[in-house]
Each structure stands twice: as structure tokens, then as C-alpha cells.
Design a protein that fits this description.
alpha+beta; seven-stranded mixed sheet
């Protein structure tokens, strides 16, 4: 196959359109393009009067008409730069054969870091054991929906805890700034386990909250089929450390506490495992404060975002729902930015502790909801925590979540406010064109009452300045829903160059909760890295 880049396609392109563009660039008959597949596909909306797709493809010519060699050697190709396509598939590389009696590594957490760590270990024949405090994704879905409808929170099975991790109830966004070669491995595994094939080539891939659970379930089945175990409703409560080495763990199950022997323990905790963070600090395992962000969810009409991004092309061809990613640096040194933008999505109740309110956003694969939403966040640093204790950031999160819970009415209703009212510090009494989508009910409020003043001030300035970058962003009818506190971990569990704890051999802090990732893709990649290093220990 050959690869060709820089192909411009109309928003309503068809298979024939693509073949025609390939043929035109190479000056060959369209009938000479036998087949193709996308390698990369992105929307170029920089000029609102010329919104289009940019594509890179792999294609096979019909050798009866023109050969790959002739295309490569043609004068026309000196400009178009067709080249032989390479197989960039990532394979796990270890330095030798593995011991058959190597003890099963134990992984705590079945989010993307834990699942991909477990999958790679299982593929290598090392029979991992994954412990997840929550339930399997099928049961977890029922608990989440029940919470949204009734306000009855299961503290171990919710948007934060359970198989698949917090990303399962977001949008399954897979775009990342990480350039690691393992990214393709993650995407290919998702597709082989049921995710849409489009994630292999879309520049901003997403699976969707409706499709991700099936892929997660299939990954679990694969791990078990390869000899691993996945144990639900198993919560890590203690680690047996002797002479600076992991020897075992204590786990709370439905029937009580049990000890498990363990030599290699991966902590793929997620950013909300606060009780586990406390246990680690009590055991003198080095944990340090880490900067994170605090803010709200902001909602607009998706139709407005589409028009702002695509102009007259909005709603045409294959464009679908538009997204955005915005950031501004304020004069006071703080940053305000959007995160986890969910086109055509919903703001969801995402609490994991009783009496605390947390918001998140999600959208399904089709992204066809009326509203768009995004986290609108203010960066905060340990200087804002008010304490040098390792878990001071956690306590700040709790404080804000408790205030939001009380402001919402103490029943998991979220406090919401029109942007126009927020700007003048006025309690909202009615909605305009945007109706809040939060899944567990809302209370009109003045959300400044549950936010630190430095966050409120930064958000107000940020909304105005971001509105100058995206038309309509600062619209007065936009809805702000408080509070968003779980965009990233407030701690980092310190590790060394071979990803082990700096103080405990055999302990591998991993993924987002440990402070080494910022989304599904980077967490999954970190899990794979840990698996590779553990596998090297098992080499004969």
C-alpha cells in the first residue's frame, strides 16, 4: 500500500470523492485507485467560507493500470509525496522468555490505566489480578442511572468508581497531547474490543458514553480469557511492606477482609480514591501535593457552537457537532481554560462521597444533544491549599463540594446560574435560551457562594476574554453548573525512573490518580509502561 497526505475533501465527501482526489493529486485515472483507508482525518475550519476536511490515506493502486513503483517514481510524485505505507503497529518488547512461575501482579483499579496494564500483562501470559472497589460496568451503569433519578448514592459504584474509571461516564475522549508510540496500541485494542473504527484516524477521536462500556466489558473478558482475574467490590485497605518491599495486601470484600500475597502492586487508583491516598500517607509512602483545577461546567446551545465554529457550513455534510478548546492566561498569573468539552452532551452528577456535589460532562457517540458543555476551570497551585499537608488539595476539593451540595439544597441538586447573573453576582431566577441538562435536578443560585473568591474573579474575567475568541461563549444565557473539582488528581505518588515508588520496591504508582496522566489515553499508556517493566522482572 501507499500513503498520501494533504488531501482536501469537502464536508460532504463520499468514497468516490476520496478516490477522485487521490487520482487528481497523482495524475492517474480514478479507476487506478482500487481501495483506500483513512490514516488521519481532521476538520479545517480556520476560514469560515472554506470549511473542509484534511485527510491522509493509505491506498492500493490497481496494478493492471499503474503500479506502486511507477507512482513512487513519477515526476508528479516529486510534489505530491506519495510513499510506501509502513506498519507502525506497536508490539510489546521484552528482553527474553518469561518465567512460568512468576507470581501474578496485582493491579488496584480498573480504569484505563489498570485495564491496559492488565491486558498487556495477560497478553504476555503473566495472569494479572485486577481489584476494583466498584462494580462491573453493566451493574455500575444501573447504579449511576439510579443515583441520577433518585439521589441515592452508592459510594463505591458511581461516576468515579467502577469498571472503566471516570472516563466511562464522560465522552470516551481519546485525543491527547501525548506522542507516545503506545497510543496506537491503545486505539487498536479499543477497536478490536468493539469501539468505532473511526477512532483510528479521526484527529479528535471519541468513543461515546453509550459505546465505551461494551469495549470495557470486552477488555475484561479478554483478560479473564487469557488467565487473569478481575475481582469487583474489592477495596485495597492496607499494604504489607517489609524492608521497603511489597509483600502482600489486605483487601475489603463483601464478606470481610482478606490478605493476598503480592510482590508487584500497581496503584491505578483514579483521582478520587481519597481513602487510599490517606492510607498511603499513613504508611509513610511519599505523596506530595500537586496543582489541579477548580471551576464549573458551562453550557451553550450546540447549534450556537456549530455556527461559531463552522459558519454557514454548520449542519452540512459529515461535520456533526463542533467542539472547542480555549485557554487564556490572566494578568494575575492564573490560567482559565476549557476541558473535557462534550459536544451535544449532558452535565452529569458525579459525586463519590455522601453530602458532596461534583459535576462532570458526558456525550454519546452521536453527540446529538441540544446543549454542549465543557469544564471551565481555573488553575490552582499548592499555594492556594492553605496547608503543607500532602492531602491538603483533597481537603480543598471536599470543602468546595460540600458547599455546592448545601447550596444546591442538600439533595444532590446542582446550583446553577445564568452567565449574565454570575457576572453581576445576582442569584438566577429564570432561564433563557439554554436550559440546564444536569442529570439529578438543579437549584437556581448564586454559585459564587460555593467558590473561592479567586476562582470567581478569574472565571468572570476568563468568560469575557474567551468570548472574544469564540463567538457566543460569553452569551448571557449560558448556564454555569457548580462545582467541577475532579479534572485531575490533587496528589502525586512519587516514583522513580523505573516507575516504582521512590520508597517501596514492587509498588507502581500509575495513571491519573497517581499524578502521571491526564485522560484516558495517557493513563492507558502509563498502564502499558508499568506492565512492560513488571514483565522485565519476569524474564528468565
Amino acid at each position: 500500500m501507499l500513503k498520501l497526505s494533504d488531501i482536501k475533501l469537502p464536508v460532504d465527501y463520499t468514497e468516490e470523492t476520496v478516490k477522485n482526489e487521490i487520482a487528481k493529486k497523482l495524475n492517474i485515472p480514478e479507476t487506478a485507485v482500487k481501495s483506500f483507508e483513512f490514516v488521519k482525518l481532521s476538520v479545517d475550519a480556520r476560514k469560515k467560507n472554506d470549511v473542509h476536511y484534511n485527510a491522509a490515506v493509505k491506498f492500493s493502486p490497481d496494478n493492471r493500470i499503474v503500479s506502486e513503483k511507477n507512482i513512487i517514481n513519477s515526476k508528479k510524485n516529486q510534489k505530491t509525496k506519495a510513499e510506501y505505507a509502513s506498519d507502525s503497529r506497536y508490539t510489546i518488547k521484552i528482553s527474553g522468555s518469561l518465567k512460568k512461575d512468576f507470581p501474578s501482579p496485582v493491579i488496584v483499579g480498573a480504569g484505563p490505566a489498570g485495564l491496559f496494564c492488565g491486558l498487556v500483562l495477560a497478553q504476555l501470559g503473566l495472569k494479572p489480578v485486577i481489584l476494583e472497589r466498584g462494580k462491573c460496568v453493566e451493574e455500575r451503569q444501573k447504579d449511576v442511572v439510579s443515583f441520577w433519578k433518585t439521589g441515592r448514592l452508592n459510594i463505591n459504584s458511581n461516576v468515579q468508581f467502577g469498571e472503566g474509571g471516570a472516563g466511562t461516564f464522560s465522552d470516551g475522549k481519546l485525543n491527547t497531547g501525548t506522542k507516545d508510540v503506545r497510543i496506537k496500541k491503545v486505539l487498536e485494542e479499543f477497536v478490536s474490543h468493539g469501539a468505532p473504527k473511526e477512532i483510528l484516524y479521526n484527529s479528535k477521536p471519541h468513543i461515546g458514553t453509550d459505546k465505551l462500556p461494551e469495549a470495557v466489558k470486552n477488555i475484561r473478558k479478554d483478560i479473564i480469557g487469557l488467565g487473569g482475574k478481575v475481582l469487583f467490590e474489592h477495596t485495597l485497605t492496607d499494604i504489607d511492606i517489609r524492608d521497603g518491599v511489597v509483600k502482600g495486601i489486605t483487601v475489603k470484600t463483601k464478606s470481610g477482609y482478606e490478605r493476598m500475597e503480592c510482590e508487584n502492586l500497581v496503584l491505578a487508583l483514579g483521582h478520587s480514591a481519597r481513602d487510599t491516598f490517606e492510607m498511603l500517607v499513613n504508611k509513610k509512602i511519599p505523596v506530595q501535593q500537586k496543582a489541579f483545577s477548580v471551576g464549573v461546567r458551562i453550557e451553550h446551545l450546540q447549534s450556537m457552537i456549530n455556527k461559531a465554529q463552522y459558519g454557514s457550513f454548520a449542519g452540512k455534510g459529515k461535520l456533526g457537532a463542533a467542539d472547542y478548546k480555549l485557554a487564556v492566561h490572566l494578568e494575575n498569573g492564573r490560567g482559565v481554560y476549557t476541558f473535557c468539552m462534550c459536544p451535544g452532551g449532558t452535565v452529569v452528577a458525579a459525586a463519590s462521597e455522601s453530602g458532596h456535589l461534583v459535576t462532570n460532562g458526558m456525550s454519546e457517540f452521536a453527540r446529538n444533544g441540544i446543549n454542549s458543555n465543557s469544564a471551565l476551570l481555573v488553575g490552582i497551585t499548592p499555594d492556594d491549599f492553605g496547608s503543607s499537608e500532602p492531602l491538603a488539595g483533597v481537603e480543598l476539593q471536599r470543602k468546595l463540594e460540600k458547599k455546592a451540595f448545601e447550596l444546591g439544597g442538600g439533595n444532590y441538586n446542582a446550583p446553577v446560574q445564568r452567565a449574565a447573573d454570575f457576572m453581576i453576582n445576582k442569584r438566577t431566577v429564570s432561564f433563557g435560551s439554554v436550559v440546564p441538562s444536569y442529570t439529578a435536578g438543579v437549584t437556581m443560585a448564586n454559585i459564587s457562594e460555593c467558590l473561592p473568591e479567586y476562582v470567581t474573579v478569574a472565571l468572570k474575567e476568563g468568560i469575557v476574554r474567551l468570548g472574544s475568541r469564540l463567538s457566543g461563549f460569553s452569551d448571557g444565557d449560558a448556564i454555569l453548573t457548580a462545582v467541577e473539582t475532579r479534572s485531575s488528581s490533587p496528589v502525586r505518588i512519587l516514583r522513580d525512573s523505573i516507575l516504582e515508588s521512590v520508597a517501596v520496591k514492587g509498588l507502581y504508582p500509575c495513571g491519573e490518580g497517581a499524578g502521571y496522566a491526564g485522560g484516558i489515553m495517557s493513563a492507558a499508556v502509563d498502564g502499558i509502561k508499568c506492565a512492560e517493566l513488571i514483565a522485565e522482572k519476569a524474564v528468565l
